[in-house]
Specification:
310 residues; alpha/beta; Rossmann fold; eight-stranded mixed beta sheet; 8 strands; binds S-adenosylmethionine; Methyltransf_25; methyltransferase
Amino acid sequence: MEEGRTSEPAAGGHAPHHDEDLDHDHHVLGSNALMREVWDGEVGRFWVEETDRYEQMNAGFGVRLLGAASAQPGERFLDIGCGHGARTLDIAAAVGPEGRVVGVDISGPMLEVARSRAAHRGLTQATFRQADAQTDSLGAAQFDGIVSQFGVMFFADPRAAFANLRAALRDGGRLVFTCWQDLGRQQRIMVPVTAALEHIPLPEFNETSWSHAAFSLADPDRIQSLLTTAGFANIVIEPLQLPEYQGRNVDDVVTFSQRTELAGVLFSQANPEQTARGWDAIAKALEPHATTEGVFLDGAAWLVRAEAGH
Ligand SMILES: C[S@@+](CC[C@H](N)C(=O)[O-])C[C@H]1O[C@@H](n2cnc3c(N)ncnc32)[C@H](O)[C@@H]1O
């Protein structure tokens, strides 16, 4: 149960599906100023505290992303919404000392972690920049590749953002990213939420919550349309369903989940007795997913590859 003050939505429902809905997006998802406030503030600090958990959660997706990016020695890469920089450092290792990778993020607290890890590993080819990937120039035609692990769903104007990414790539350069499929396909969310709802009143989910943006690219037709409009070609969208680490054991997952925004929303209408029963039910529902390596629930993402058109 990864949600909440985290990178994730607090609620169900569907992202707008078609290009003509993009203006609607702007309204629904709010401005990047809000995202900056969220990620550069409390949410960023929350995930800094949970760095290890977050990285284990997404490790499987990271392997697939890196495989698809196939960074080669000497290449120049961007990592968009790089967060703590785990993938930036992987790319840095792949491009080697002759290459270059720039991690871009709006979150100061998360970039601090990324910078200190790069320094610790002596990866001087990795640098980090606090910037808005939608509105700030990333450099014209300077990069061979762009990667993003769950970092491209939070743009107020995705059309402008993907055009900005295209502009930073040389012709034929590649864009590779992961983004979440629909909320309903996320076992990591549906297992705990369904269990709790047996015992608590249905809360009012707010689709305009900043965190709902995590599902803004759930519709592959929309991804295709956005990327085509932005000047990308040869777009391939592959479903990935992978086990996601949630925590060491059931108690650890419950304690973590209780701090998330999703928990706040989910239990907002419940009295203390219902709340206690709800958390017991979540713990029971997690038990079958506990292994000696930790608790795992599936996450469903899209792995997207595209080429900067000529
Ligand atoms: C779900 S986290 C992913 C972090 C990292 N890629 C990872 O998987 O470990 C999303 C990241 O996107 C960043 N972000 C959101 N909007 C952004 C924007 N407009 N420009 C740059 N980064 C942004 C957030 O600060 C956050 O670090």
